[in-house]
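Appendix B, record 7
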Amino acid sequence: QVQLVESGGGLVQPGGSLRLSCAASGAIFSINVMGWYRQAPGKERELVAAITSGGGTNYADSVKGRFTISRDNAKNTVYLQMNSLKPEDTAVYYCAADYDWDKLRSSPNSWGQGTQVTVSS
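Structure tokens (predicted):
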């Protein structure tokens, strides 16, 4: 079992920035891909960004050019740098992990508890 703990959410004005962190522990040898989902009221769950242990990345079209996912393998931690934030980015952001791309995109085996991001003036 992998445990994921997110941090870094909060309230920010439009155009501002936040950095989310996700620290993994437990059976970390079993995961190769980690990513960030978000869930906003009335909207479907969206995979925002994902990254492999080798550094390959993928982003949702809605955040390309604004968000950057990165990881520190030595610390078993994944980050999501969010710049130029918009009100529509408001959501609960969840860290997720699994062993390959397909599984992460469909039904990740491991989830964090979520952290609230609110973009409002």
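Remarks on this record: The chain is about 5% helix and 50% strand. The helical segments are 101-106.
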